Amino acid sequence: MASENLKKFTNSQLLNFCIGFFGLQFAWQMRIILSGPLTESFGASPLLFGLIWLAGPVTGIVVQPIIGALSDNTETPFGRRIPYLMGGAILGAIGLFILPNSGNIANLLGTNAPWWLALFIAAIMIWIIDACVNAAQGPYRALVPDNMPQEQHSVANSYLSFAIGLGSVIAAATAPVLKIVFNYQMSTSAQFYMAAIAFLLGMTWTCLTIKERKLSKAELQIEEQNAREEIKKSFWQNMADFFALSPEVAKICTIQFFSWIGVMSLMIFFTQYVVHIMYQVPDLTAIPQEFQASYQGLVLEGQNFSSLCFAAFNLICFIVAIPLGKLTQSHGNKKIHFIALILMALAYIFLAFLQNKVSTVAAMMLAGIGWASILALPFAMLSKYIKEGTEGSVMGIFNIFIAAPQVLVCTILAWFINISSTTINNLPNNHYEYAFLVGAIMLILAAATTLTVKED
Length: 456
Hints:
Growth Hormone, Chain: A; 2 domains; two-stranded antiparallel sheet; 19 helices
């Protein structure tokens, strides 16, 4: 087949290949850090913020499979994947530009516009951004098997992981570094605009410099046959086939389920925790609007510190990812993953109880070890049980155990924090630190389940 005769990418070509993914991750990291304070300024309670965050898992479950299937069967002069990459980048960039201006758009309708209109516009933009990120992500990863020989698939995905780490660190560090070094405070709007430009330019560069290989007639026939076979199978048939691979598969899925409740407890609520608990900004939705502006400076300081912590978190993940992989060769996946999860759980406990800047940065760095392990080792454990030719369907089902936990965090945990009211400086607030206690428990459960996996 033509795919067996593909030319290897050089190191410079691989670096060039991952530029678009750098832009995509840059945009996604900004959306994680900034969406909490922004939506709260429009009136979002912790519960409403959690429901808005449903955009990520829902679009991941719905959009990625649909776009993936469409890109498999798309033929254009530009290629199969590139139209989806470029379309996702354009719409996503528009969403990132509009999101911080949701209040201004609502005000165009006059002073009698309902208070929730700006929040509604912001929520739509967040859903569009998340859908576009998911729409671009799947076809982007499909470029690897499309255009590179089999022996380069692992190294190509490691370059994409490199882009994820670098994009996250630079996105998170830009605003706090500018403040510390040049005493220049980037506005929230400017940070979203920066993310939009990075997403659009990075993806445009990839679309212009990567030439997709056209499939031969034989390959097209095979893909059409595979698609027909997958359509014939019901969801429950696929699930049954998945769990029939090995008894260990259910354990690995359980590990992933608990782990991602822990991960999203941090991702969704960390910035709000910093702003409200560490910087003692009250619940802005519960105080008169004329007093909210007086807290804007503290909110920006909190965002800066949260960004700095996320930069440290992703930097450690970036640094330890390859050494963790090396350690698994001599000690096995489950022992290393168990230790990494326990370290991450300890980090969460430090976050919940210590609540000072030095311990918070240190805890985020410690949590980065667990994050690096979660991104890699469950997939490595699962890969031993995947039958050749079923990789796509298996990973699609495995993704359910990443997305479903996110739904629980966005709903049940968000509701729990919403009803866990408190006061700071005699003003209303919420116990955002509870997210880390719940996350720590989930990570400990994941670590305990890891020890039950049978590994050669």
